[in-house]
Amino acid sequence: MDNKILGLHHITAIADNAKRNFDFYTKVLGLRLVKKTVNFDDPGTYHFYFGNEQGEPGTILTFFPWEGIGKGTHGAGMATHIGYAVPEGSLAFWKNHLTENNVSFEEGEIFGEKLISFNDPDGLQIQFIEPKHKDNRSVWTTAEIDSENALKGFHNITLSLKKADPTLKVLTDILGYSVQNQDNNRYRLITDSIDTANIVDIIEDGNLPFGRNTGGTNHHVAFRVKDDNVLMDYREKVLSAGLDITPKIDRDYFFSLYFREPGGVLFEIATDNPGFTVDEPLATLGTALKLPKQYESYRSQIEKELPKID
Fold first, then answer.
1. Distance of CA 252 to CAs 7, 33, 118, 267, Å?
2. Element (H, E) at 127
3. 186, 202 in Cβ contact below 8 A?
4. pLDDT tens-digit profile of 216-265?
């Protein structure tokens, strides 16, 4: 399995306000801020990483909180719904907890799995799902959210597309997923290389307008590989399929490749190595501002520009 895609690595989205984003994901949803850094291309903007205690691949939701960017629109050519696995029987807790925090939700079921759907403060679409199969991942707990209810990490990501077939071909022929189920215009794909964060859903709707990628929308979806040797194998596979892909990029906590699949969604392939403890110990992850080395000499200026979140 070491040379396969190991499910989802992380998902990156856009927010409109850093403090509001930080407060919602750490205080309302109870995730750990495992890394506080800046956008590689815009060091005046934070890059937040929220996840479990260790920041394990498959648990990490990251944000570019561009202040005042405004609200985007969900649509075709985008990842439109982020699904988190929650412990069996915990949906009652979450319905009460969200209500107490003035977050409205809807109840539903997809492929036999019960869920609730809601939006974050920017309009990002989140789903909490009770998986059919037990999820034994470790969790991050808070004073209000204990281990019986805390988020396990990703269950799935949903892509909304005008045509499913070209993207299905990428997922199956290149990334090693297989179609597990179909319900009308919804497809469920799964990789058997891991048993969590291993699902991609596709909604096909030829009439769906294209989305606008600003606040409250997903920026890209990252798939997980063991290391940069496997990463470069996948680069050759993507190139052989006739798709453009970037050179290997060092993101400090993982190595990455980016390519846009035919349906319009930006895909990333990211490595497990070196991980989030490469520049700060596990006990204090996310507490200090960590800068890419090219920006370290500008630290004082960057710290003055960044909005206060504490």
1. 21, 17, 32, 19
2. strand 125-129
3. yes
4. 999 999 999 999 999 999 999 999 999 999 999 999 999 999 999 999 99
